[in-house]
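User: I'm putting together notes for a lab meeting next week and I want to include a structural view of one of the chains we've been expressing. I don't have a solved structure, so I'd like a prediction I can at least talk through. The sequence is below, exactly as it appears in our construct file.
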Amino acid sequence: MELGEPGIIHKGTRVIIPVSMYDSREDHRLLIPFISINKIGFADRNGNVVVQPIYTMYHGECYEKDDTIRVAVNYTYGFPKAGGKVSTYCCLRYGLIDSKGEIKLPTDYYHIIPALGNKRIFTVQDGNCHYSVVSIDGTEVVPTGKYHWIDGFDKGLARVEINNRWGLIDESGNEVVTPQYDCIWSLYGKYRQTTRAEKNGIYHTLSLKRIFGIKEKRQLSPDYSDYSCDDYGTSYGEYEGTYAQDVAGYSDEVINDAFDGDPDAYWNID
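Assistant: Thanks for the context. Below is the predicted structure for the 270-residue chain, given as structure tokens.
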């Protein structure tokens, strides 16, 4: 395997298998990371170098053709100081490569957040700290600067913020919930079908669907016509200290109606 020393790595820059002990044919990844002179590159299963070692860090693996890997390089910048001195700083700038090693997004971004459940769209923050949503071919789904902040997508939705008002958008950039709340609890990576929102000191339950009876927690119908943003569930406190209320975010009304007043029934909804 003509990769140079020292060997195959894991995520950051830690060598876990020396080249002399590694057989790439037994690795099921389409891109296999390696390190050479403290930089990360990628090879295919035949040991051919596909991406030259130019990266500092990577996130993700390619097991399928539509998988992508976030890669990063060091970016150094500075500011002038009194006396002709310069303060320098170093951070990471991220980009995206596909399973063939081809660059899909250049290493120009402070953050790239992959959508959960959709391998084709990403929330990105550019070098000017502006957010947008782009597809894997670079097309803007949500234009730069439309919102002050955009979260990653999960269950087809992402939180957005503009002028200190929070709402939700779908993967096409449509506003499912117009920005109107003082705060919306995170959806990204959460095993829940509801979340909480606060407006003028009053808490609301935002239901991703008329949720009760859904068995697969991480699967939703793409039909958002059932998406509700009503006041069903504005009271909290009766079941304070339970997982159903404190973590899952269900209101007193929801626990009383859907779980017959038993918050422990939350664990039986599967």
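A couple of points you could mention at the meeting. The CA atoms of residues 76 and 90 lie 4 Å apart. The first strand starts at residue 6 and ends at 10.

User: Perfect, that's what I needed.
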